[in-house]
C-alpha cells in the first residue's frame, strides 16, 4: 500500500476481543491519506491528443468483482472460534479481528500465515484446542499456523459457495453491456488461479466466466502487481493495443500495474483502499452502480473535467 508521510495519522483504539493499532509502535507511525469518502466519481482531464477507443474491458477480481477482504476476515474469525484461539492467552473469549483492524492490517502484512505469525509474535502465542499450552517450539508454532490456515481456507471456500455472496454492485451489468457491444472482456487477478476460478464461477456464473476472452491469474505471470506483466500479457492475448484497454481496479497496486502497462484505469475502491492515492486514475468511483459502458467510452474519447 502506498504511504505518504505528509498525511495525517490514523490510530485505532484497542478493544477487548480484537486489537487496535496503537498497541504496536511499528504500526503507530503508519500514515494514510486523509480525504472525504467519494460520493461521486473524481474525473481527471484526458487530453484530446491521447483519446483512446475502448476495445477491451479488463477487471481485477478481489476488490473489484468481489469485496473479498471481509470474507477472509470472517473465515479467520471462524477458524479462531473453531479452535478456541485465545490471544493473549489470558483472554476470556476467542480471538476476533475487527473490521476496523483488518482493513488496515491486511494492507500491511501479506499472506495468511505471515499475518497470524506476526500477530501472535506481537501479542503472545495463543492457547487453543490444538495444544494444552501455547506452543514454544518452532515446530509447534508452525503446526498451529498451518492448521489454522488450512481450516480458514476451506471455510472461505464454503462461504463463497454458500450463495450468500454477490458480485459488487454494477459489475455483472457492466460486463453484459460490454459483451453486448462487442467489446472484449478479461479478468486479471494476482490471486491464485484456483481461488479466482472459485470466485468467478460462483459470482458471475459459469457461462460468463467461460465467455471471457482472456483470464489470467497470479500463476500465469512471473511477477505480481504492481509489475505490469499481467496486463501486458492480457493485451497480447486479446490482440488489442494497450491504448485501447481500460482496466478496473480497486487499489493503488493494481493502478500502478495498469498504468505501467500503458493502459488507462478507473478505480472502484473498497473500505480498505479508500484512503489510497489514486491520482493516476482517470476516474474514481465508490462502486459501479451508476457507471455505464458509455461513461467509460466517453472517458477515453473526450475531455472530461470534474465540476
UniProtKB/TrEMBL annotation:
Keyword annotations of the record: Hydrolase, Metal-binding
InterPro entries recorded: CbbY-like, HAD-like_sf, HAD-SF_hydro_IA, HAD_sf, PGP-like_dom2
Source organism superkingdom: Eukaryota
CDD domains noted in UniProt: HAD_CbbY-like
GO molecular function: hydrolase activity; metal ion binding
Sequence similarity: Belongs to the HAD-like hydrolase superfamily. DOG/GPP family.
UniProt name for this protein: Haloacid dehalogenase-like hydrolase domain-containing protein At4g39970
Biological source species: Brassica carinata (Ethiopian mustard)
